[in-house]
């Protein structure tokens, strides 16, 4: 039925007068506000390490870790320039620390994960304990914990930083403080957390004081062995190959309340069934090479490359060699809010 | 120490080349990304019902509930024009339904609350049961439940809609469907949910299928009586007067996983101590009149007015008469993510 | 195959020598220790109030509440004489308090429930607050809380006491203390707990300090109304009629961690389907009359009678008039330990 | 004040008449029923392996595993002869399985733990998966899971069985079934559960179907290494030395809902501070030797000896050599029921 022009004019006039009271008509935007399915405003993207590494090394010549506080190149979603976001809820960046450098102690309500991409021997210190990092290790610096990094090795070290910066920003709930000294005092020998919390047993009278995992380094050697044993224990999942989630032993949940972290093995020649889910996910290639079709885009990837799969985009992964992929997303938050959905088959 | 111009130039050049790879230097934005404390980009605002009501009634002459699907005037934060947000995580609007009208059945993953501002006798139907709404009633339409509204009374009816639209949008996890018929079939007599779930007892073998409350109407008569009895039971809280949170009897949590809902009574002459918290909060005045200073802004309010207090803004409330305020925020989400903070004293 | 006598003798001799080391052969008792299904060593039983009341009143002439501390006639399972148990995990008794009497203040780790059988106007005080009790009220005195009772009315008052005494005894985890004064100081006006916790809302910043319900009187008027409304809301359950469980509003669980409490309405003429479950259950008849077949035993019952249904005994209830039954059992403990089972049909 | 004989007689007469109605006066037994502190009716006891082993081996000549179903010598508390209990809630026994024998498949609601005392190479099968057992391994057969045992090695094998038989018996909630075949079909390769659940990660989409741990063998090699690392990580606890609890990685709780399991290391020369708690505890000595004073009784112990500490009995342990003790108790149940207490200092 045709809308008489007069009514259109009346509405237009009405909308203008409404605006001056900071009001707007829902009916003109309902469909965009409550879409039939997710319509992300961000894109798949891939950062080849071959292209990224020279920039990382150049950044080492342009600013010190001390001056930068954190010398990080942000991986910014190409559809969100200037946002410092890789997805609407997640931040990702590649951090460089050179031999002898220190990234000074601070703390913030944003939770951070570190996934080691290149090098070994640098440390992360959390709450008075240091852990030496190796390629493939997954390290957490939980919300509001003092943390600093230093490189006592002879090689540059690069890791992926994943933080919930955009999520915390949306809640306007971020707080931060700088430490009094660059490096926090070491109060516990290295390995204390692993000895106490990572054995499948827990100290008899220990009660967790927060949701985050008491383990702050999940070493790759152990994770890799677990993946290997999984391949012996049964068939691969059609969509995921062999996929595990990192766990907080104190409650069975995610080590970080705001970000889920995953490691998966794709057997040589594996081609996944199409799959999509509502958690936009950042991937870091740990081993092997292959390619992924994400929506209409295809990326070839190999060790140390990074790519992002947007919410509800259908992904298909193919592994040329046996490949291992680390990934993280906001899935634990979506699950707790009854928002998370997946579609096996990707339709 | 002065920065040599050459280094500045080298960095500028570096940043430009970086941008072409969708990368950016963290150190240039670290302080904005990880601020020392919340710096909301939105403002306190107040919508006086005297000013809003004529527009609501005019909207009734410009579009039908059927055509509009939901005839709502969005309360948009003046600092976020075009965003349809009252805070970065919350949507609020005032919905009008005229005698004889129907707002057709649909469902969406966004959760909605209705707080009745004016009129009585219209119904909300959820999952086959209708509830008649009265002023001050708090009604929920949980995530992914079919719901429709109709007004069989002889008066226009206006309520506050509160939804988690921006939150769900950030997760890109929204789904929606329209019902096959305008009004869903009624399969349970009115009062079924209240009889089963609102007595302080629960059906012996009932297990909740979801996090949201099985009660979908929390009537004002009962809430008001609870507030009245609280005033007899002890002194007012210095910051909140007498303040209660609505509860899901199945788990003691919020009736809606993504939004906390509150009702508070301010005694006649009560002046609150300064207070701030990280959950930006939307208020609806149910009874009385008074004024609130929010940061540097002061609003006088009375029955049916609405106002918003941003995250970490210090608020002081004064009640000229005994006043009752309904409010909602994202506090339950922040609490579950260990993000929520408050400051009694407002400093 | 026949067992040679020599072997039997050798075993007998072996068993004797074993005994001297406090050891015994499992294979001689395995079947009793791990039975195919529950084989309770206790019986159904019924206590008619007509028969019990004269003894209660006589007890009032033989001992004071003060001297007795608690003037209670224990309802002892006839199959467990001297055990003070009505089931292997539960204690039940009928307590008499006469006008002007006081049952002095004490506390113990055993949790207690009171269900009011006759009279009104006496109080129970818990943690500094008193509640006046009426017939049909359900009152709790949680583990390790100071409590005392007094009767300021002009009539004798009788209530059912239900405690987890045998359960706590088996764990050897019982502690008790007597108060310094007979009556604890009143520090909160009557109705404080109900005002704060029983409205369907909770104080905004209140966090439960223990598992037990913050409500300590669930008044019959409200429970009865809930049952009445349930009968309007849908059909009766074939086994239970209309049955509700009392709930702790802070967590949706049982008001007392060790005992589940229930209230059910059987419509006039209702005959239940056979039913059995692993929680031995104590019933108190609140209204009406009827009869119950429990295993091979049938009891006729009316208002104020009490009876017990053993674990896994098949029960069939018939209501001559509309009847209301209160009951309690250890079901919450069995459910938390994954032990609870039921069989609808009773086979 | 003296009680007149007439009143005594009246009461005695009253009690007799009461008895005929299956009632009893609480006031005559209140103090025993609600004691000021735990007064266990069971005793400390110790079973020296030197004395027990000959009986175990003799049992192997008197009955086959097949005929016995489980060839176990029950460790029966000397104060509860004929009860088959080591504490009022726990059963313990030593099971012998000879080379080539099979303990046939069955399942029961009682949960069982196995702690390997002597030998290696025998298997336990649970839900279609076998695990080979070694000294010091902790193996669970969760409630209602099919399980069988076999010894394909060339040596006899002995383990400690710990079950919640008395607890389940008190609830009258025990069910049991025999398998159709002696040995259940093997449907998963050995190591499947460990690969899936024991790495600190969990399968991405796995949701636990029950409370019990998905890991069914916690190998000693790993537990021992954890204890060793703990000794490097900090000082010993004054009461416990270095003590860990076994954990279900799916929820951070006990691997078995009804029984807590613990492993502790006492450094050479360690003398514990006096300690008591309400959970009666069964100990199995894994390494070293020393002595324990429990109440007024002192036991010297060495590898493979077993002893029991009653509820609330003060225990002091001294280690002549570095010693390792496994133990189990009902602590998780008491904690969930808010009943558990401890006293460091033992007073």
Keywords:
homotetramer, 347 residues, alpha+beta, Jelly Rolls, 6-stranded antiparallel sheet, 8 helices, 24 strands, 20% helix, 34% strand
Output the strand order for the largest sheet of chain A.
Answer: 2-21-18-23-16-15
Rg of chain A is 23 Å
Total tally of structural domains of chain A: 1
**What is the overall silhouette of chain A?**
globular
Structural class of chain A: alpha+beta
Query: What is the level 1 CATH name of chain A?
Result: Mainly Beta
The tally of strands of chain A reads: 24
Of all protein chain pairs, which has the greatest interface, and how many residues does each chain bring to it? A-B, 89 and 89 residues
Low-confidence spans of chain A: pLDDT under 50, at least 5 residues?
A: none
Second CATH tier, the architecture of chain A: Sandwich
Strand content of chain A: 25-35%
Largest sheet of chain A: 6 strands, antiparallel
Kindly report the oligomeric state of this protein.
homotetramer
Can you give the helix content of chain A as a percent range?
Answer: 10-25%
Report the CATH superfamily of chain A: Jelly Rolls
